[in-house]
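Dear colleagues,

As part of the handover before I leave the project, I'm documenting each prediction I ran so the next person doesn't have to rerun anything. This entry is a single chain, and its sequence is reproduced below.
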Amino acid sequence: MKPTNSVNTPVLQVENFSKSFLLHEQNKRIPSSCRISFNVNAGELSALIGPTGAGKSSVLKCIYRTYLPRGGRIIYRSASGQDFDLATIDEQKILQFRRFEIGFVTQFLHCLPRQPTIDVVTQPLLAIGVTRDEANQRASELLRAMRVPERMWSISPARFSGGERQRVNLARGLIAKPRLLLLDEPTASLDPVTAECVIHIIEQLKSEGTAMLAIFHRPDITRRLVDQVIEMTMPSPEEKYFEESE
């Protein structure tokens, strides 16, 4: 790990994190990430880098609680100033955090097959009590910034191309401005103009205090946006042995 020092109180503290996957048919455990520690601060963007298979996406999914970690702690400081271990809190609490405080932009858009694009984007705002008019206005601004033509807003994004779906996915993930934002290759499948719009929005969120943890596939974007680099490597033979012997 190569974290930078900061005087800020971390929004997220990952301590001695490990993740592995059990292959039931072979009765074998495969390590994904081993003994990782880092902090993520408000108003800063931290980037996970490393080779394919080092477990970068698994770290994000464990923070969001799509996966459960094998070991370690994931301490999130909430808006109320309380610390919670995302690895062990109950499902109701993690759902509450997803609704109000923690956002995740994945590489894939999941939505109802016939849901109009404008409704896909406004959903996070409506869920936290924003009026329909204000939600529609903010969604319209983001969709224009993402260069999604207005004629497509009433159509389900399930009918869009991969790049168009990613624009909608980003608009939905960014619209609520969460305290902690997880980004899994947010500029993948985007043309240079749209990617630049996304970079501008990320810079704006940083200036407003959002803490971000991201995976980028382009080194130039990493150098431009990132305040901290967290370098991940493939599990060593010793770590593999440790997992298999447990």
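The helical segments are 56-64, 91-100, 117-127, 132-145, 162-174, 192-207, 219-225, 237-245. The domain at 1-101+178-246 is CATH 3.40.50.300 (Rossmann fold).

All the best with the project,
I.
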